[in-house]
Amino acid sequence: MKVCSGCGEELQSEDPGKAGYVPAHRMDEPGVLCRRCYRIIHYQEIAPAAVPPERLRGVLARAKQERALVVQVVDILDWTGTRIPDLNDVAGDRQWLVVHKIDLLPRETNYDRVRRWFERQLGREGFRVERVYLASAHKGIGIPGLLADLNRVDGAVYFMGAANTGKSSLLNALMGAAEISSDRPLTTSRVPGTTLNAVTIDRGEGRKWVDTPGITAGYRVVDRLCPTCLRAVVPVQPIRPRVYSLETGQSIWLGGLARLDVLEGDRQPFVCFLSNRVPIHRTNVLRAQPFFEKHAGKDLVPPCERCLAEVTPVARTEWKLEPGEKVDLAVAGLGWVSARGRGARVALFVPEGVETELRPALV
């Protein structure tokens, strides 16, 4: 069976509309890419594709059968939407966590503090993780240390995580640092679901690394957006925290994807951590919904008009923020708003089914 060297999909030349298509005359070329991967790499054409659930279950079953080390990769800007507690059932105690894309945090961030935050949070949430790494494939941060530890691991290592956490980019960086030759790098893009099947990198002497399809559960904002909106919501540059001083009766819109209302509380700063390309609009509680109805999909973007029905913020969660507690109000697949401990009662509106949480402040 021949597979695409970029995404792992089985190659076929019968149906151009299905995954894995390659023209018949190119089928026997070394390191051949399917048409989808070729277009992603050469034209930055975003082509979403669904991974069948049974395929993911098969990959997870193989990892468990092989007693593999599982490296769970999460997005530093989306812990809420990219952590996968169920991997405990696959990996047991043989699990490492790589907190990826740390170069997207504000430049003044203290990485030691971030690492300690994750170590505490893993304990709170019941993760059985041996080691925590901070890394950036884009900047090469953390790659040498992670590679040195991986080189001491015998057997199989499965890289797993939610779609679009950068697993393939991380593996490409590790392969480059390890000087592992390959006909083609693994295919990467900003769209969730680029890797369609397991891709094995043979390291010799019974050792291998396995890149796996990203898991998409549908509870993130990014899982419901078109390619154009994705480009705005998925950061590619370090985020710049934006501070808004709000009091009782005031609101902010995060694009048209989420809304925060201050129901009770003295004037205080709320710090927004999300893509620099998502505009933030201040209004008040009474005008917030009419403002959305008038401008959503037009001046209030993202979402565009095409995505609007999928991501209209109608689900409401209310929290009481206690004085002295610095917390984040996180929205899966979008970012978070940080409150600095002065106490308030707030309501957060997000699209139906999108996960939210109140957690200790990350930065």
From TrEMBL:
Organism domain of life: Bacteria
Every G domain range: 157-216
Ranges where the NOA1/YqeH-like C-terminal domain occurs: 267-362
UniProt source species: Kyrpidia spormannii
InterPro entries: GTP-bd, GTP-bd_ribosome_bgen_YqeH, Mito_lipid_metab_GTPase, NOA1/YqeH-like_C, P-loop_NTPase
Gene Ontology molecular function terms on file: GTP binding
Protein's name according to its UniProt entry: Ribosome biogenesis GTPase YqeH
